[in-house]
Write a structure and sequence with these properties.
Distance between the termini of chain A: 33 Å
Strand content of chain A: 15-25%
Radius of gyration of chain A: 20 Å
Number of domains of chain A: 1
CATH architecture of chain A: 2-Layer Sandwich
Number of helices of chain A: 7
Largest interface: A-B, 70 and 70 residues
Oligomer: homodimer
Number of strands of chain A: 15
Helix content of chain A: 25-40%
């Protein structure tokens, strides 16, 4: 019998339809290698720095060469210039597209994915995320700094060279706004963090846990929208990813690498999206409207990993209604039991 | 300069990023023809009726052959058997997957799309939608009847033979629930329909209108999430698609055919999703909870057509934040000016 499950954070129902029975092998997707021409014109490779907009920030390898490099997006969806201009258009509302859109090139090596890098190098990528979030937050026009990664063509990447995007927006994205509201209501009633409560239940149940260590837990959420969806949470309550110290980021790098390796082995290197949900940029900043200066200490930052292995887009987009053919308990078991 | 636009119905912001400049030709997608083997095993073709579950309802061509045929989905995401069972799972909530999942085979002809059928035949397909909605509404366990069409592999169709799906769910899908709430709040303040107000503005502005006749208007919404997204509304206020009479459905068939032809010509026969947003199944029915027996007379039914020409899934799924590279004014102009 299929089952409907409610996501208490996103406040939506998901159909878990196990009878459609999809196991990891059904999803195996091996990405094609780049052609020689694509490799020879890759703007993210060393020696072709002139093909990207100028470097915003750079982290070097100790020998004077860059190891992680941040540049502006050449085709930005939002622009950093100008004052934020809100106005009505008849009964509609608009604002101009002020924001920022950056690219973090994760490695000089064209052929390595994030998962292939040594733990120290991954930690440096995470440090770059933190640095960009903290830097962009100084701009008071911006409400949210979104760090996300599209890995592979199926996940929407237009270049295969490993990179992450940072988008700073004058609004908080809808899913984050819903999560913030859920966390706040839960805290107001119970004086406990909604995420901490869920993690405690997940640890007790165990069936949806993929990996747990002293600092982090990765699990497949109870109402997962997608097969093999994974969320990583810090076990100690913390509302801000960008408040993590170097030691924690290094331990996150270790944890993340293992979790991505499990996904790649189980699913044959699928394309995936990776998103950091952290507190809004307005945190602790007094904004023009008091509403926005509300603290989000009841919030718990996390990372979402969404393998892009199913193609059921339009229906879900049109309805907000998800059908997931792989129960998260089965997905977690496959991911736990994989041979690394 | 890119622009952020607010959707007053879905209550979300969309980035209209015209500088990424995508015109119809950038999206041209010509579907591949089926192989002979696929054609020879198609379960929706006449003579292979034994390959589908039994016929639920059938509309004939006047000569004793079926022209439109309704069957149960062979791999249903929800099942019609059993009582609805709601329960808690720790702090989570679940219910069993009671519902219905049907398929409407639109034509016996393997090679024709909905758009290729004569207007009278399209009207018969729309009549089948209406009949299924009205029939399934009698089941008091069900809250919503969702009619949707995935056309083409890029839109999630697993069979190319023209068909529509009907899913009856024990909950109202999230996007419909948000729309219902927006319409109700607007009505409570203004005693006018939110959708009627928007349509009046669209007719006055004109720039986003694709086609208008005495009964229907098709426009590209102000805060379109996707390039060339189109919505069809009846011009006279009506909350229930399934309350439409035969004359209106025939005029809708005529309107729909032209709008789909414009899309196909402009974009080279893209895959697309098609969704009917009508009032909940509980309309006018006294349910166990009074909340659900509230009438939705302030609601305005409509059809959404979403061409599947961009692949930016994961990011949007993870954030609820859409980036649309084609301003709806440009999309509407292309669709209006296309030579038919």
């Amino acid at each position: 019998m299929p089952e409907l499950r409610h996501d208490p954070i996103q406040r939506r129902w998901v159909i878990i339809s196990s009878e459609r029975g999809r196991r990891p092998l059904d999803f195996h997707a091996n990405g094609e290698a780049d052609s020689e021409a694509t490799r020879k014109s890759c703007p993210f490779c060393p020696g072709r720095e002139h093909l990207t907009p100028k470097t915003i920030q750079s982290f070097d390898d100790g020998d004077g060469n860059w190891r992680v490099r941040v540049v502006a997006n050449r085709f930005p969806a939002l622009r950093i210039e100008g004052e934020l201009d809100r106005k009505a258009a008849g009964q509609f509302d608009r604002m101009n597209g002020v924001g920022a859109h950056e690219v973090i090139i994760e490695t000089p090596d064209h052929d390595k994915g994030l998962v292939d890098l040594p733990v120290d190098h991954i930690a440096q990528v995470l440090t770059a995320y933190k640095a960009r979030i903290n830097d962009l937050r100084k701009d008071t026009r911006l409400r949210y700094i979104l760090v996300f990664k599209n890995a592979g063509a199926s996940a929407g990447a237009s270049l295969s060279h490993a990179h992450t995007q940072v988008m700073a927006t004058p609004i908080t994205p809808r899913t984050v706004a819903v999560e913030l509201a859920s966390a706040k209501e839960h805290y107001q009633v119970k004086e406990r963090c909604l995420f901490c409560d869920i993690l405690a239940q997940e640890l007790e149940t165990g069936t949806r846990v993929v990996k747990v260590d002293d600092d982090f837990i990765t699990h497949c959420p109870y109402a997962s929208r997608f097969p093999f969806e994974m969320h990583i949470h810090p076990r100690s309550h913390a509302h801000d990813f960008a408040g993590s110290d170097d030691g924690l980021l290094r331990r996150l790098a270790f944890h993340l690498k293992e979790v991505l390796r499990r996904m790649n082995t189980a699913l044959g290197n699928p394309g995936y999206n990776f998103l950091i949900h952290t507190c809004p940029a307005t945190e602790g900043r007094v904004h023009r409207s008091n509403y926005w200066s509300t603290l989000a200490l009841d919030w718990h930052w996390h990372i979402e990993i969404l393998p892009r292995i199913t193609n059921v887009a339009g229906f879900e987009w049109g309805t907000g209604f998800y059908i997931n053919p792989t129960p998260p308990e089965e997905a977690a078991r496959f991911l736990r039991e994989v041979d690394l």
